[in-house]
Design brief:
By secondary structure, the chain is α+β, with helices and mostly antiparallel strands. It contains 5 helices and 19 strands.
Length: 293
């Protein structure tokens, strides 16, 4: 049983907080809730923040904030993690909107911040930009992806939903096909962050808005294989890949299948290993190009 149920926020390190904040506010369409000389906090519409930006010498993903299920006490989770040999740090009032959290880093991966509650100032959805409806998932790269996958499945109760041969593993803690994608790579870093948008027609509006802003689309909109999300990708100003998606597969964990969809290759569609020969031609190059900077 998963001990967390969603990604609450991501924190991005950036050499230029102002430039990144302008992109996430005016292009993506988040609302800035709080800011300082070296940080900015932006909300999709309800939470205090879903994207945090913090000044640093080099860009990257600083941490992922995961919200803990209400029936999982934070202290108990900390004890379990420490008992499994992981170093846990308690932090109080270390970030706006979150009074208490624990921080733990999976082996060779990106730090996680686990929290129970966040304030909800509810600034509302923006009237600018793409205006996503939620922060859906993150793809991270790690030199020992198998250890990272074991941490999420054994310590936090994530379900494994699909695999790209021995390259990438898809994991979830809720009905979405994936909340996390762990990719085997030479070093620990982020591959992409993903926002869910309203529907397929919204992809057209997003593509037009990106073009007007002078931002090139890297791939899509088109349908993936694993997860079957209808997706498009572009770079933010720091060249972090940002995915916009709809139509992600819905997991039914009690019976081990995904809700049926007309575009599924199999009925019923179950978690499986996707071999290179089974990919749709249009998706192969991007889905295996995990070296994208």
């Amino acid at each position: 049983m998963p001990k967390v149920f969603r990604i609450g926020y991501i924190e991005l390190a950036t050499p230029d907080v102002r430039r990144q904040a302008e992109y996430y506010e005016n292009v993506i369409g988040l609302r800035q809730v709080e800011a300082s000389a070296d940080a900015a906090y932006l909300s999709i519409g309800l939470d205090h923040h879903n994207v945090a930006l913090r000044s640093a010498s080099a860009p990257g993903l600083s941490c992922i904030g995961l919200q803990v299920n209400q029936d999982v006490p934070l202290k108990g989770l900390a004890r379990d993690l420490e008992g499994a040999g992981h170093r846990v740090s308690w932090k109080k009032d270390s970030r706006p909107g979150v009074s208490e959290l624990i921080e733990v880093t999976p082996p060779g991966s990106i730090p996680l911040q686990l929290f129970s509650t966040m304030t909800m100032p509810a600034p509302g959805f923006s009237e600018k930009g793409i205006r996503p409806i939620r922060l859906g998932h993150v793809a991270i790269m790690a030199p020992d992806a198998a250890k990272v996958v074991r941490f999420f499945t054994e310590s936090l109760g994530f379900h494994t939903t699909d695999w790209f041969v021995d390259v990438a593993t898809f994991l979830t803690c809720n009905p979405d096909h994936h909340v996390l994608n762990v990719v085997q790579a030479d070093r620990s870093r982020v591959h992409h962050i993903a926002f869910q948008i309203q529907d397929r027609s919204h992809h057209c509006q997003a593509a037009d808005l990106l073009a007007t802003a002078g931002i090139s689309t890297l791939w899509g909109p088109a349908r993936h294989t694993a997860g079957h999300n209808f997706a498009a990708y572009h770079h933010d100003p720091d060249r972090t890949i940002v995915e916009l998606y709809t139509d992600m597969d819905v997991l039914l964990p009690d019976i081990g299948i995904f809700e049926p969809r007309p575009w599924h290759e199999d009925l019923p569609q179950k978690p499986k290993v996707w071999q290179p020969g089974t990919f749709n031609t249009w998706g192969t190059r991007f889905e295996f190009d995990f070296s994208v900077d």
